[in-house]
Protein 1
Amino acid sequence: MKDGRIKIRLLCDNDEDYKTLENWYQKEEIYKHFEQRKLTYKEVKNKYLPRTKENAEIPVFMIEYENQPIGIIQYQLVNPENKRLYNITTNNCYEIDIFLGELKLHNKGIGRKSINLLSKYLFNEKQAKLLIMCPLKENIVGIKCYEHCGFKIERYFKTENTIGKMQEYTLMIKVR
């Protein structure tokens, strides 16, 4: 997928991509909104290796700007547990997660273009009925970006994050 100087490609099962991710996961500005903690190289590889495989449940794409990796975007079909959490009954719903690991490239429209590229793919190729993003309620910059992409705030909910701490999230939905 491509839009001008922005390209989205599947994450590769190689040291270069894993080391890039490990570097990003050392930045508090990144991990506080995505993983809530730093990840080692081994943790990065264990988490992302299954997502590089054909027919992965959570395909991960490297976002490149001018042929340099700058972030990742991923999607997954919303599972029954999350459908209950989100209080949705629609089938063929996908959830999107994104982060830009290169802080100097924040607020330049790259995240918005990347989300729009993936949204178009999910609506056209996967016949998605609706798309979901669930940023932390405190992630105002992310929420504004997602609103610019056509996502609407549906409601707020609390659930455990990746390290078992209760946090409040913003349920955002984009309908086809």
Protein 2
Amino acid sequence: MSAGVFHGGRADDLPLGGGGSMAQLYQQLILDHSRRPHGKGLVEGFDGESFQVNPTCGDQVRLRVELADGATRLGAVNWDGQGCSISQASISVMTDLVTGLPLAEVAALEAAFGELMHSRGKGVDDAVADALGDAIAFEGVSQYPMRVKCALLGWMALKDAVAKAAAGDNSPAHVPEGI
């Protein structure tokens, strides 16, 4: 199942697999998040920042985190970036999912999303699916290796930014010229 979506202002196919109503629901969720992304817009004052680029397609994200509760909880996530609907929606869904959680839970969700993305469309067990919440909508993307990188981009930035924040590195991320 695919439908026209926006990728940098042009129509693109959104690979979600299957033809059932759940696939349509997941497709709509991804489209909604890509059109109205949550957490988008950089905020000054951060504990860690990461800049990531998918060299395959040019998707990019600059993501900032703020830690809370003695650096044990993810207090805030904000970001700016550009790319396909999958990368932008994945970052948006991720922001909703992880903000406010203890860092151990954030790490567990990052691992669970990685497991989902490497399942090649076979999915994950019910407990993992439940923990992922709306992020389970990207299950169909896992069938397309070239698109998995798009869905994982924000998660890699989050992992890097949290690691920097935990290490006390709140220096701005290096963004290459021309990007």
Protein 3
Amino acid sequence: MNSEFEKELHKRCLTVDGFRKWYEKQEFLSELVFTPADPSDAEAILNLYRSHLGREFCAWTDDYPSAETINFDLSRNALFCLKTKTGHDLAGVISFDADPETDLLPCWADFLKPSVEFARVAVSLKYQGCGISGKLFSCASLEAKKRGFRGVRYLVAKTNRIALHAYRKLRFPTVGECMYHGVEYWCCEKEI
């Protein structure tokens, strides 16, 4: 078992049914398109954000993220969508944040500057558990590298078990912790 494929196959697919599910997931992920958001996506993005309100572990509120947040991200070309090839179905979103408060946290590595913070990551409820967050982070990391960033970082609420589970697979080192808007967060960062 030398190849990554063989290792993954062995780890996840010990049955024919397990292999079929894994293969379908890989096929589905390859069909998604990562693209900068445009103003016509704003309503769908806001609806996606709103679909998470009130869910266990979600730190978002009725006021955040908002239409204004989306417009701010759009104005900076810092909001990205993962869509089906038809473009009609939004699987997830991620943004490059511009927050001077979190930029000042002492845990960020100087040698990774300039770095960008990934924020407002949301996955459509119907696609959760399909590897969307990993695909978002992977594609956003490539975009960040194209834009000249050396590192990427994010904050994840300590109580958000769903995000913590998804992000564990991304192997971002935890470099610190902080309290932000009354919520405790882990600070994670890695070189790209």
Protein 4
Amino acid sequence: MTEMPIETLLEATLFGAGKTMSVTDISESLGYSEQEVLDGLQSLQATMKRRKNGSLRLTEISKKWVMEVKPSIADHLPKDTKAEIAPKLLKAASIIAYHQPITQSDLVKLMGPKAYDYVRELAQRGMVDRRKDGVTRRLTTTRRFSEYFGCPHTERKKVKAWFRDMVKEAGLLDGMETAVILEEQNDEPVQLTLPLNEDNQD
């Protein structure tokens, strides 16, 4: 049997996964070295860019890779083909965008222990970046977050300003503004009032 090119395996693996995957994850799944996987990903990414009328692209987000529909194509797809996000997951993403940068520990204070799961899933979807910050993580939105919400910006501060304007119009965080007030000093979030714990709302 002829050995299948690694680029073909990578494309099928990422398409089937439907989520972001690290080089390490892919390496363990396919049995190739991490360097072989990385070289293959870069080769596949270049190949997909050259494809005429292609609908998919390979993107690296926070050191993880994902196969996704090109934004120019996504705008023309029926609304019911767009991946839906659970309401509680959407609330977590909204809070991160509204207050970014926000530490994961502060998000847990606001939403309860389930916030860890929400952050993990949002990171897998490539919508938030979670960088180590001491004993916790510093959470910010990504380019993919902007694409999902239709934000015309990718720079964090512009995304934050745009999202706050959208919140006022759409009421995405109804009830949260009065329960949660974060003041930014030196670009760090500081909690000033008693947090609203999601676990106490049920």
